[in-house]
Amino acid sequence: MYEKTSFPDLHLQTRTITLNSVMPKLTLSSRTSQTVDALLQYINRSPSPFHAVYETVQALSAAGFKQLREEDSWKEAVKPNGKYYVTRNQSAVVAFAVGGKYQHGNGFHVIGAHTDSPCLKVKPTSNIESQGYLQVGVETYGGGLFHTWFDRDLGLAGRVIVRESDSNFQSKLLFVNRPIMRIPTLAIHLDHKAAENFSFNKETHLRPVIASAARAELEVTTDCKGLPKSKHASVLLQLIANELNIKIDQICDFELCLFDTQGGNIGGALNEFIFSPRLDNLCCSWIATQALIESLDNLANDENIRVAALFDNEEVGSQSLMGAGSNFLQSVAERVAQGELCGAAARKSFLVSADMAHGVHPNYSDKHEQNHRPILDGGPVIKHNANARYATSGTSAFLMKELARRHDVEIQEFVVRQDAGCGSTIGPMLSTRTGIRTIDVGLAQLSMHSIREMCGTEDLVKTLDWFRAFYSEFSSLDSCLKTD
To answer: Could you say which of 209, 227, 260 is where a domain stops?
Structure first.
């Protein structure tokens, strides 16, 4: 329709277009919509690895999994048809379900992922005041695209050690889900080169503003005024205390990171995309856990143990107490198998290393090898590398492809260009440490390691179906192929 708009000495005709009249709207299937909503709820509630493990444990507990502690004896605790989980450092978790026909020496079917993502972490001494602003000193964690953190509304999350009394200390999760910090860019008028080549110094330019010094001085509470000069701004400590409903002098220490307060959501004109922070790798962490839970219907007939292992610190090399380079998975498996993992059990086992994959970028397609260009919603991706940067072998790839074929799950494959570097995953590390056959897989995504990333809605459902089938059916498939 046309409407006439009048201005003095000017007459224009404008056309009002209703989007629905020219663009069909895709309605996601009920299952896809519910699956995506569940993932986004998990991601939005998990601004730190501590929160991701907490949310994972909540889901496991609701499904009947019982907690085991590493410091306790498990000798009489683990039984066929039992469901259990173990946490380490509050940031890593191994969940497992024991088949009803399991016997010691049988195999483990494992899906491994990681709970951490590139972020900014608060330094041990973070108090900075500059030009009338209070700022928070932060340290980069992982190989993030940290230019994407400028001009974002940032919240604060992690864990805080709280003194309840002289003999009682508690670890409490902190989740300040509102924009309390921001890293402002420099106006182009003051740096004309920034529009063509934006660069920054991580130490001096990547400092978020949390408050104006003058306003903070006026608002400071009596609790702060009596304290000695702190390693952290009083306004930051007061904020933490208020969120946890404690006094400032109860704060003993903390591990905190910044996060984008804009949550994940469904996007695209046809609702085919997921736009969200931390898709790498909370997406695979959620799928692994959900697939394990959904596979429990036929657990009674399984001779093996089904495992979902979520590690911390993958983005910085995994060499930590709670990383894939630790003894966490091996320790759990050996205790369950009563020391037989290194023998028959390892050779009967299989591990899926699940981490997000590089989808081909429409503006930079030349960055991909011409015959290996995964697309979003084209199906899960199997990763290959001749130099063992990924753990995929010919046999491990065949088995998972055959499983996908049986469930009409289309598979894509990825090989990095030979003139480009290749990243790695927890796959080669776990395979080397445990002696378990391994494959590296993931969902295609764009903007990997940006503060906001992008993947496909249908890939989520396809991968969930594939992983659930792995837990439920891999035993019978594996018996059809013997190589040693």
So the answer is: 260
351, 430 Cβ separation under 8 angstroms: yes
- How far is the C-alpha of 42 from the C-alpha of 284, rounded, in Å? 11
Statement to judge: residues 380 and 391 lie in one domain: yes
Residue 180: pLDDT band with limits 50, 70, 90: very high
Residue-number span of the structural domain to which 395 is assigned: 30-117+278-478
First and final C-alpha spacing in the chain: 73
Encode pLDDT of 161-176 as tens digits.
Answer: 999 999 999 999 999 9
Residue 18 is assigned to a structural domain of this protein: no
Q: Tell me: the pLDDT tens digits for 361-408?
A: 999 999 998 999 999 999 999 999 999 999 999 999 999 999 999 999
Cα Rg, the chain, nearest whole Å: 25
Confirm if 145 and 451 have CB atoms less than 8 A apart: yes
Q: List, in order, residues 6 or more apart from 77 with CB less than 8 Å away.
A: 68, 84
Q: Averaged over 257-275, what is the pLDDT?
A: 97
Q: How far is CA 401 from CA 146, 337, 441, 472, in A?
A: 36, 29, 11, 15
* 157 lies in some domain: yes
Same-domain status, 397 and 420:
yes
73 and 145 inside one domain: no
The burial class, CB within 10 Å (0-12 / 13-18 / 19+), for 447 is middle
| Better-scored residue on pLDDT, 333 or 421 | 333
CATH number for the domain including 231? 2.30.250.10
| Closest among 459, 264, 204, 480 to 354, alpha carbons compared | 459
Cα 302 from Cα 100, distance rounded (Å): 6
447 pLDDT tier (thresholds 50, 70, 90): very high
Residues pairing with 128 in the sheet: 135
Asked if the model's pLDDT at residue 457 lies above 50, the reply is yes
- In a domain, residue 149? The reply is yes
Of 101-110, 145-154, 221-230, 287-296, the one with minimum mean pLDDT is: 221-230
CATH number at residue 307: 3.40.630.10
Residues 110 and 127 placed together within one structural domain of the fold = no
CA–chain centroid gap for 481, Å, is 34
Q: Sheet containing 209-212: which strands, arranged edge to edge? A: 168-181, 154-165, 251-260, 119-130, 133-141, 209-212
